[in-house]
């Protein structure tokens, strides 16, 4: 760990002293992401305090009422307040996405380290398995698993996470293969360090530098997949506010000129995806010195 801290500190100083367009876009992405995290954390409190209408209880609202001072985003076909459902949708999205990406990372990173370090037949078997999973489209794989595991926060996260395991595996495995021949690894082996000690003390912090970038980009993609599952009726229970499900419910009224029931959930989903994508691209430049040099030359 001591080997990587000076490198990260030096990169941070260079990155902040010479801001580029990617740096500015990363700050925009960070602001958007923090905004949605704030909504996810405090929206339930706003409902309990009466600042937001309940997004799940039947109210005496007029169905399909356009945006007004009383209902900022209007109401949907059942009379639910679109504003409250859009705000509360951030909580469901973050819960599923963070859990899905954490599960895929928890599986893919250790498998990649063990596969790259041990090599041999185990490495070939895991490579074949991960390549087989990776060839399948992520949405199709998630839809298939959603049929099997059913609805729910955890079930949706499991259905989404399986598609990202090969990505973490390949990135960490390739880094492990290149790092395990370094002198400090050979020195650790020479002094009697076992496999677990080498992986946890000497390899781990040197092979996960790209994982945060992959985490944010996968989170952005997972939001879209969750929306697709909700649109197909395979994501979360109907009682849980979720953007994909709300878009499905709003679709029949779109042809009649009812635009607000689709605009605001879709805009929220798009904004969150854009924020995480910009954050991931900025982190990629921060971690990858070559990209930073190329951007500096273009600038």
TrEMBL record:
Arranged from A to Z, the UniProt key words for this protein are: Cell membrane, Membrane, Transmembrane, Transmembrane helix, Transport
* Stored Pfam families: BPD_transp_1
**Membrane topology according to the record:** Multi-pass membrane protein
InterPro entries recorded: BP-dependent_transpt_permease, MetI-like, MetI-like_sf
Which positions, given as ranges, span the membrane? 25-52, 92-114, 126-147, 211-237, 257-283
Q: Which domain of life is it from?
A: Bacteria
Where found, per UniProt?
A: Cell membrane
Where's the ABC transmembrane type-1 domain? 90-280
Record GO biological process:
transmembrane transport
Q: Name one GO cellular component term.
A: plasma membrane
The entry assigns this protein to a family as follows: Belongs to the binding-protein-dependent transport system permease family.
The record's annotation in PANTHER family points to: D,D-DIPEPTIDE TRANSPORT SYSTEM PERMEASE PROTEIN DDPC-RELATED, OLIGOPEPTIDE TRANSPORT SYSTEM PERMEASE PROTEIN APPC
The identity of this protein, by name, is Peptide ABC transporter permease
Which organism does this sequence originate in? Answer: Chlorogloeopsis fritschii PCC 6912
């Amino acid at each position: 760990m001591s080997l990587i801290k000076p490198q990260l500190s030096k990169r941070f100083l260079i990155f902040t002293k010479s801001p580029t367009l990617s740096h500015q876009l990363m700050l925009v992405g960070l602001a958007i992401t923090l905004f949605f995290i704030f909504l996810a954390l405090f929206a339930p409190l706003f409902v309990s305090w009466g600042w937001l209408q309940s997004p799940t209880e039947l109210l005496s609202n007029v169905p399909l009422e356009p945006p007004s001072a009383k209902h900022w985003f209007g109401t949907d076909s059942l009379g639910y307040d679109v504003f409250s459902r859009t705000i509360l949708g951030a909580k469901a999205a973050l819960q599923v996405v963070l859990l899905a990406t954490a599960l895929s990372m928890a599986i893919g990173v250790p498998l990649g380290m063990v596969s790259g370090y041990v090599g041999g037949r185990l490495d070939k078997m895991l490579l074949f398995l991960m390549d087989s999973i990776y060839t399948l489209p992520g949405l199709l794989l998630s839809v298939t698993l959603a049929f099997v595991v059913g609805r729910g926060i955890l079930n949706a996260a499991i259905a989404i996470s399986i598609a990202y395991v090969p990505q973490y595996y390949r990135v960490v495995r390739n880094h492990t293969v290149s790092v395990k021949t370094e002198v400090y690894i050979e020195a650790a082996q020479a002094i009697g360090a076992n496999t677990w000690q080498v992986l946890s003390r000497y390899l781990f912090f040197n092979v996960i530098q790209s994982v945060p970038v992959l985490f944010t980009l996968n989170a952005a993609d997972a939001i879209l997949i969750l929306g697709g599952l909700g649109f197909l009726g395979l994501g979360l229970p109907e009682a849980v506010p979720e953007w994909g499900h709300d878009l499905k419910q709003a679709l029949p009224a779109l042809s009649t000129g009812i635009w607000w029931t689709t605009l605001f959930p879709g805009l929220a989903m798009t904004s969150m995806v854009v924020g995480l994508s910009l954050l991931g691209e900025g982190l990629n430049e921060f971690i990858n010195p070559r990209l930073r040099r190329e951007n500096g030359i273009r600038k």
